[in-house]
Amino acid sequence: MSKLNKDILFLTFEELQDDSKSLFSCLMVNRLWCETVIPIIWRNPWCYDINYYNKKYLFAIIISYLSDDIKKSLVKQLKHLPSISWKSLVFDYLSFCRSININIIKYIISTGLSSATNRLLLQEEFYGLFMRKCPELKYLDIRSIENQIFHFPEAKLRFELLYELKCNTSDDPLYFYELARISHYIRRLIIFNKTYTKANTGIIKLIEVQKDLKFFEWIDEFYRCNPDYSNYNSRESYKEIFLALGKKADNINHLKIYFANNADRTLQKVLSKFHKLKTLIINDFKYFNEELLRMCIYHDLEIFKIDCYNLKAASIIIENSGGHLKKILLGSYNFNYNHISNFNDDSLTFIRRIYENCPLVEYLSLVFPPSREHFNEFEKLLKICKNLKSILLIICEVTEEDSLVNEDELLKILIRSSPISLREIRFLYDFKFSLEILEEFLEKWKGHALSIFTCKPIYEENYIKLINKYMNNRIIKDFRCESSMNVIKQGLSYEYYVLPYLL
């Protein structure tokens, strides 16, 4: 491995660009590996799952680029930090950088300076340095911005082809007006909504000037700013934003909306315009008009995620999809199903619409009561959907007239009818199988290596012995008892589950 061609190494490390643990391990193999992986890490060095608050070496690296006069001034102010280097660095790190993250840079600077004024001045120096050294800037996170970074002479050249922007609605509109003057080809726009009274006019302008916007994500966060947010009508902060977004619907392929409160009526009106969607994730369809929903036809849809209490809306969307859906996922399991009107009928329709319209589905979440009719429909789904790789099952406790079926019957269905493609089963809530049926179930997976996730531990010694036996024989690839939040992480990255789970 250590003698692989540099081009092969680079392509391999590119595949690991989101895996910080693996990339950082590669740094230690030899000089060639280190030289190859450094440009990948420093392309977007703020995106990794590490603690940036105490990364003094990042502070030292960036400081080393500053002029000697600034370094001498800093030496008098800095405490508890590594000594500032006056020598050239081994790598020209900033020449690889394509990203600015305002919050992380503020954290890095705050470890070295106590004075707010000095911190702002040093931020200005840092941003000027990035403008001079970075050949282009593709990723920009300006949440909590305090400096006008778009006035630098190099700003137009650096931000002209900006690819991704993350921002807050609470930031000064002037920053967005300046960015709208420069950046017309943003492809990914992620907005964290921290206001609930009015829209940010600068963000509206920024959306209006975009020529190739493909990905839009909206995340309500004003509930964190004010715990009494539910008393506010937040629609004013949405209306103009979504009207502007609707004018870009012909280009947008990926739409993700996480509302903290009731769904916005403006989005209901414009949603049918997004006919080229490949990804649709909306946590709240509860108050959507059914007639408007039936106008939402997405023939290219591949990923669809919705909350459990919106199964009727989900069935309508699935029925009008083009047969390309590969991921159908559910969220917000933390509520009482008895309080949902028509839950039994809606969950039954949901299963049917999937096997009628989604032959290619690979990742699937299902929630239904333990009735004979639901179990029969679930078995039909397993027989028809031959590409299933992962399934999340939530068998909820709901009182109903139909006969109840125990968990062993669920395993028998999986034994009889699971497609050979199935490699992962996730059980949410309390599933308890008999030892005999569980062993029969595990025998089914010889030669296939199944992973099982549950949020309820198996304490009995005999169960533990049985699981260990099949793990040792590599019939079970993985068996883990996780938190409910980890169990529902299925088919999408962590962030798309944590955010709606918290709302």
Automatic annotation (TrEMBL):
Tell me the protein's name: F-box domain-containing protein
The record's section on InterPro entries has:
LRR_dom_sf
